[in-house]
Amino acid sequence: MSGAPRVFELPDLGEGLTDAEVVSWLVQVGDRVAVDQPVAEVETAKAAVEVPCPFAGTVAALHAEAGAVVAVGAPLISITEEEPASGASSPGHSPGPALPEVVVPEARTPDSGPGGNGAARAPEGSGAVLVGYGTGAAAPRRPGGRRRRPAPGAAPSRGAPGGGAGTTESPAPAPSSGGPVPVVSPLVRRLARENGVDLRALAGSGGNGLVLRRDVEAAIAAARSPSGSAAAGPAPAVSAAAPGEERVPLRGARAAMAERLSRSRREIPEATVWVDADATGLVELRRRLNAAAPDRPVSLLGLLARFCVLGLSRFPELNSAVDTEHAELVRFSHVNLGFAAQTPRGLVVPVVRDAHRMSARELSAAITETSEAARSGPLPPERLSGGTFTVNNYGVFGVDGSAAIINHPEAAILGMGRIVQRPWVVGGELAARPVTELTLAFDHRVCDGATAGGFLRFVADCVEDPALLLGDL
């Protein structure tokens, strides 16, 4: 015997994300699903992820078509559960709707906020750890002492799941004095704090009264409007295409990259230096290394990455980030190397972690493997974040140079143009040599031109005479 279907709402996917696009459904109506079985693949502004369902049963309904954008806290899928066998649950216990819990992701950038406190318990038998639904028997302490915040709302709703969201007669009940306000992420708290918004006065539009970013933005708009009140909801960002126009929504990885590049231009006072270098030594070194071990090829980008890692050990100012919230310069002892990769979904910047521990061969292999993975499908968020420095070989596009945009919140990006035969003076005589242009864009807040020029000159010297560094390759 089965009861009414239980509605699984789209969980909080972390880092202030308020919605996700349904890429594809992994189940259909009538299919049986197990606890923690992935039911849908969704794409956010950060990455594509599979969403596991925290309870088992038969799929009763899919609440969105593939390609639709679903808000955090909105119904995603309904599951009809079979009544548990006798003795399967404690006497007098009636399972209610699963309560989402907000999990604060590990901080990866200086802009990330602190985690929350408390603990929460979710349905038994599930071990899903997707941000937004931790369905283990008890919420454990996360690394570094962080805990999951308790699910918004003190008790299960007696109505339809999420039924309290959107009520306009009275605001959502405020938490007890001293308790945390249920919000979607620390970034929402920061947005409210910087704009003087009292979170306790807001009626959250998310499931179980969860305060979302759009709620805070609506409150900010209301405070700034002449009438002092906001519209019933955010105006849809939809416009009709004029004749001869095509309007393509910015979503997923492309939207994330657009926001990151825009933020870089807004916040980073960048400067650019460049130099031409004779690449004869670089080309010859690569040929010799690949002839010695053809099964472990070394790429030009791998060699350039290794030169940059060595340069960062000599000029550590460029391996840093600016924490604007605390007015601090954060310098890193490790190098997580990002590199630009063109994929069918747009430009992404995957990250090779602990690049300072790798040789040129190891870096080449890691870059090749990550590039192929990025082109064949979406990468998980941890492989697209946490970079401290970025390299780019835009010479593959047949161009000589580029005024690159720094990958926020990093402090610098170095690029290499195409290698072409050009007139070059060697030993006082003119000769045709393979020449490349190296360009460094850097955050002028972290260093001055002397440091940036010294770093670029070091990398150029490595390109021109790499034999001097054979012991470090």
UniProtKB/TrEMBL annotation:
<dbReference type="GO" id="GO:0005737">
    <property type="term" value="C:cytoplasm"/>
</dbReference>
<feature type="region of interest" description="Disordered">
    <location>
        <begin position="82"/>
        <end position="182"/>
    </location>
</feature>
<comment type="similarity">
    <text>Belongs to the 2-oxoacid dehydrogenase family.</text>
</comment>
<dbReference type="Pfam" id="PF00364">
    <property type="entry name" value="Biotin_lipoyl"/>
</dbReference>
<dbReference type="InterPro" id="IPR036625">
    <property type="entry name" value="E3-bd_dom_sf"/>
</dbReference>
<dbReference type="InterPro" id="IPR004167">
    <property type="entry name" value="PSBD"/>
</dbReference>
<keyword id="KW-0670">Pyruvate</keyword>
<dbReference type="InterPro" id="IPR050743">
    <property type="entry name" value="2-oxoacid_DH_E2_comp"/>
</dbReference>
<keyword id="KW-0808">Transferase</keyword>
<feature type="domain" description="Peripheral subunit-binding (PSBD)">
    <location>
        <begin position="183"/>
        <end position="220"/>
    </location>
</feature>
<dbReference type="InterPro" id="IPR000089">
    <property type="entry name" value="Biotin_lipoyl"/>
</dbReference>
<dbReference type="InterPro" id="IPR011053">
    <property type="entry name" value="Single_hybrid_motif"/>
</dbReference>
<keyword id="KW-0450">Lipoyl</keyword>
<dbReference type="Pfam" id="PF02817">
    <property type="entry name" value="E3_binding"/>
</dbReference>
<dbReference type="InterPro" id="IPR001078">
    <property type="entry name" value="2-oxoacid_DH_actylTfrase"/>
</dbReference>
<protein>
    <recommendedName>
        <fullName>Dihydrolipoamide acetyltransferase component of pyruvate dehydrogenase complex</fullName>
        <ecNumber>2.3.1.-</ecNumber>
    </recommendedName>
</protein>
<dbReference type="Pfam" id="PF00198">
    <property type="entry name" value="2-oxoacid_dh"/>
</dbReference>
<dbReference type="GO" id="GO:0016407">
    <property type="term" value="F:acetyltransferase activity"/>
</dbReference>
<dbReference type="InterPro" id="IPR023213">
    <property type="entry name" value="CAT-like_dom_sf"/>
</dbReference>
<feature type="domain" description="Lipoyl-binding">
    <location>
        <begin position="5"/>
        <end position="80"/>
    </location>
</feature>
<dbReference type="GO" id="GO:0031405">
    <property type="term" value="F:lipoic acid binding"/>
</dbReference>
<keyword id="KW-0012">Acyltransferase</keyword>
<feature type="compositionally biased region" description="Low complexity">
    <location>
        <begin position="167"/>
        <end position="182"/>
    </location>
</feature>
<feature type="compositionally biased region" description="Low complexity">
    <location>
        <begin position="85"/>
        <end position="96"/>
    </location>
</feature>
<dbReference type="InterPro" id="IPR003016">
    <property type="entry name" value="2-oxoA_DH_lipoyl-BS"/>
</dbReference>
